[in-house]
Amino acid sequence: MYNYIMSHAYSGLFGRMVVFLQCILLCIRIQGQATSDTTALAMTVEDCMRYAVVHSHSLRQQELRLDNSKATHLQAVGAFLPSLNASTSIQWNFGRAIDPETNTYTSVSTFNNGYGLSASLPVFDGLYRVHALRAARADVLLQKNALQANRDQVALQTYQAFIDVIYAQESVHLATEKLRESEMILHRTKVMEEEGLKSPADVALIMAQQAADELMLTKQENQLESCMLKLKEVMNWPMDNPMPTLHPITLRTEPDGEASSSALLLQSFYSLQSARHNLHATRASLFPTLSLSAGINSSYYRNLNNPSATSFGQQLKNNLGEYVSINLSIPLFNRLGTMMSLRRAKNNLLIAEEQYAAKQTELDVLRRQARLDVAAYCKESEQGEQKVAADSLAYELVRQQYTEGLASPIDLQTSSATLLQSRATLLQSRLMVGIKEMQRRYYNGHPLVEIGLKP
């Protein structure tokens, strides 16, 4: 695209000299980059997208949310395991107390030491743990697709910012060539004025055009700096570090093919699944719960005034006790807490169903619109090429007529402005093809970059 635009900008001996000088400068820059310690290669738009995905602050936060969901899932898995508790206690009694040997009151100082080990396993809880596990698994998948959707969004923003920089760079090139052309025409006009072929008014008009071209170049350079700043912001690139050379984009369109599930749609789908399992888990609160418990305990006792107490090991063996228990809990009334929780869970499920249906409709419209936009901008690009070719020919004729004294400076300015506008419109149409193609791929569920996007 760049070669196509610049092929219309250079003409005659002046154009060949400029190309020769640019080739020399390009060789010098390549040699300087080869010996540099920073970046020796140009960054493509895919490189910028990968860098933005890796260094995005919002994506790091989303990755932490995903890790929280994984932790919740592991916690739901652990709910199926029995709980095991160990306990111990130490007690000194001074004064009146109960003697554990005789079960009578005594006033001597004693020492008590107890040990216990217990285990508990829920047997039935209305399938609450099952649905809690399924809801946690759905939430993990939801967060994974949310991470993927956010990565795609960062990639899209980076692509848009990259396109803006490329457009600003090409606009600077066009404005520079326009200024050089105006300077060359001004020089010719002054020569023709000395020969009596042009009037001072013609020279003044060309000087005014040159000043306008200088102003336009300044504006385009400022716009380029703003676009570069926006690209750094989106990529989280250090503001004080210069950006490496940006490689021009190779525009291509791909056939639609079969659309896969978009991360945006999967995000809504797993949100629906999570809401459904949360409803089942809430209903489980209406059922009774049954649990099984077992444990052992023992103790050690000593009268501090009696040195001939039974040994520690013998007391632990003699005082060893075991128990097994079955616990049944039947919910009767909890001040309507369960009923209101069930009502909210039903409403959340209905909301999730509506959101999923709306997301399906939205993505279908976005896919169709993106496909139409790609076709429209491709058509505009084809028509723009024809218009640029026609305006270039018209400008060459007007410039030749101006040199021969058959056209006025106003005619030359009008033709030049028309050609510049045609080139800018063609550039914009071609770059918009890339943006809309990227959006079409995104809405069809295809990954925007191949590396670093899978959680």
Explain this structure to me?
The longest helix is centred in the middle third of the chain and has 67 residues, at 128-194. The chain contains ten helices and six strands; from the N terminus they run ααααββββαααβαβαα. Residues 1-40 and 451-455 have low confidence and may be disordered. The chain has helices at residues 2-9, 12-34, 45-55, 57-78, 128-194, 200-235, 263-283, 312-318, 337-403, 409-443; strands at residues 83-93, 97-99, 104-106, 110-124, 289-303, 321-329. The chain has a four-stranded antiparallel sheet, with helices on one face. A two-stranded antiparallel ribbon has the order 2-3. The chain has two domains: 44-81 and 127-287 and 336-443, Outer membrane efflux proteins (OEP), CATH 1.20.1600.10; 84-124 and 288-330, Outer membrane efflux proteins (OEP) (Single Sheet), CATH 2.20.200.
What would CATH call the architecture of the largest domain? Up-down Bundle
Number of separate helices: 10
How many domains would you count in the coordinates? 2
- The secondary-structure class comes to alpha+beta
**By CATH's scheme, which homologous superfamily of the largest domain applies?**
Outer membrane efflux proteins (OEP)
Shape: elongated
Strand content: 5-15%
Main sheet: strands, sense, barrel? 4 strands, antiparallel
Number of DSSP strand runs? 6
CATH class of the largest domain: Mainly Alpha
Unreliable spans are 1-40, 451-455
Based on CA atoms alone, the radius of gyration comes out at: 39 Å
Q: Averaging pLDDT over every residue, what do you get?
A: 84
What is the name of the CATH topology of the largest domain? Outer membrane efflux proteins (OEP)
